[in-house]
Amino acid sequence: MGLSRKTHPHTSHEAGNSVNVTEREHAVLKTMRQRRRALTTTEISEFSGIPLWTVSPRMKPLEEKGLIQRVGTKRNETSNRNMTTWKIV
User: Fold this and answer.
1) 4 located within any domain
2) Overall number of domains in the chain
3) What is the Cα–Cα distance from 6 to 13, expressed in whole angstroms?
4) For residue 36, what are the domain limits?
5) Within a domain: residue 3?
6) Residue 45, in any domain of the structure
7) Domain holding 25: CATH number?
8) What is the model's pLDDT at position 3?
9) Is 1 part of a structural domain of the chain?
10) Strand partners, 16
11) Which residue from 3, 54, 4 is spatially nearest to 28, judged by alpha carbons?
12) DSSP 3-state assignment of 82?
């Protein structure tokens, strides 16, 4: 099964199965390589033009694949919350 849950309606399963996770992971990595510094998911979203709700779910799988790592935190000026910063391994 794709990115949808068993309890989601049939249309969610179709949409989840149509997502190309590899392409989105590649787009996140490309942005991180271009910036050459640790970035938050918000920064990755802003620099790449990819919606934050699409960037955030890519981080853990990329971390598990050993392609990125958590390197610290940074205060988000808008929300005034600490956010994880990530870098390419």
Assistant:
1) no
2) 1
3) 8
4) 10-88
5) no
6) yes
7) 1.10.10.10
8) 46
9) no
10) none
11) 54
12) strand
- 18, 2 contact by CB (below 8 A): yes
Annotate 20-70 with DSSP letters as a single string.
Answer: -HHHHHHHHHHHHHHHTS-B-HHHHHHHH---HHHHHHHHHHHHHTTSEEE
Place of tokens 């390197």: 71
DSSP letter at 11?
Answer: H
Q: Express each pLDDT in 30-86 by its tens digit.
A: 999 999 999 999 999 999 999 999 999 999 999 998 999 999 998 877 778 899 999
Residue with tokens 């190309």: 20
Residue 82 structure tokens:
């600490």
Cα distance between residue 67 and residue 50, in whole Å: 19
Burial of 12 (0-12, 13-18, 19+ CB in 10 A): middle
